[in-house]
Amino acid sequence: MKALVTGCAGFIGNHLTERLLKEGFEVIGIDCFTDYYSREIKEANISNALNHKNFEFIEEDILSLDDFPDVDYVFHEAAQAGVRKSWGENFEVYTINNVLATQKLLEFYKLKRIKKFVFASSSSVYGDAELPMREDRLLKPVSPYGVTKLAAENLCYLYWKNYGVPTVSLRYFTVYGPRQRPDMAIHRFVKAILNDEEITVYGDGTQTRDFTFFDDVTEANILAANSEIEGGVFNVGGGSRISVNELINEIEKIVGNKARVKYVEKQKGDVKNTWADVSKAEAILNWKPKIKIEEGLKRFVEWIKLECEKNKRG
Ligand SMILES: NC(=O)c1ccc[n+]([C@@H]2O[C@H](COP(=O)([O-])OP(=O)(O)OC[C@H]3O[C@@H](n4cnc5c(N)ncnc54)[C@H](O)[C@@H]3O)[C@@H](O)[C@H]2O)c1
Question: Which of 73, 94, 145, 159 is catalytic?
Fold first, then answer.
């Protein structure tokens, strides 16, 4: 079996690549090392895969390619991530990497016989929807990023409806774990608390998030790829909904240090709460999150400690 993973050098894309290689897939990865965060981090992310005989890496921008590999499965993880930066003139890069790149892939694969096209969507498509967030709720994103992810999700649906491209969209809820993007809260908080540095919280910290460990996300991708479902959408949430203040307390307990927190104004585009109803994924994909936040955080802290030691050694 052959799979294409776009965004293979990013946080989720490279974990998925490694999982697919473990499962015996031949994997072709595409990534163009966008400057959202450092290239060095992404190169380290894919270093394991690069040593694998069944991995081929294409360092290209999706939009600069006219031809994509012949594969059985496409896992489309590449995107311009991050809610807060998606305003103003940055919106252009979000439109290019999230909407146009998705359309380009769908245009190409509409003519091929692939088994599944799994798209990495986001809880951001819900905006401040009623809780728990269910797939059939009205979608009103409150960030430009959310708008681009919803547009891409809609493209996946219409290429299925019109051309029969077997798409499935998975709405990820705040994914964390080793190699998490450096701009994300858990990554920033753990690093700062370990180093006794101040952390910045946007808003009063009572906002809640449904945190999802990356292993559960890669599992959902595999199950979606193997399912009979086409044109569907599923929530992929970790079942660990806690407030940002509670998250900080948990990290303090694990690290054994007190956090120094600076509260600043809530950022535009941030939703108040997220909470996934995952009963649809459970019923249809037989997927359920397994890793609770306490366990996931412990694994994250262990990983970041090792990273800090590596960096000290140079
Ligand atoms: N991390 C989360 O909590 C989260 C939550 C919801 C949805 N998602 C979605 O999951 C996917 C992966 O997120 P992540 O956190 O791993 O992000 P990431 O930024 O770590 O990875 C994305 C990768 O895509 C690459 N990329 C972007 N545009 C490209 C293009 N045009 N051509 C080739 N490569 C390109 C980037 O260089 C990067 O390596 C994204 O689609 C994101 O929107 C993530």
Answer: 145
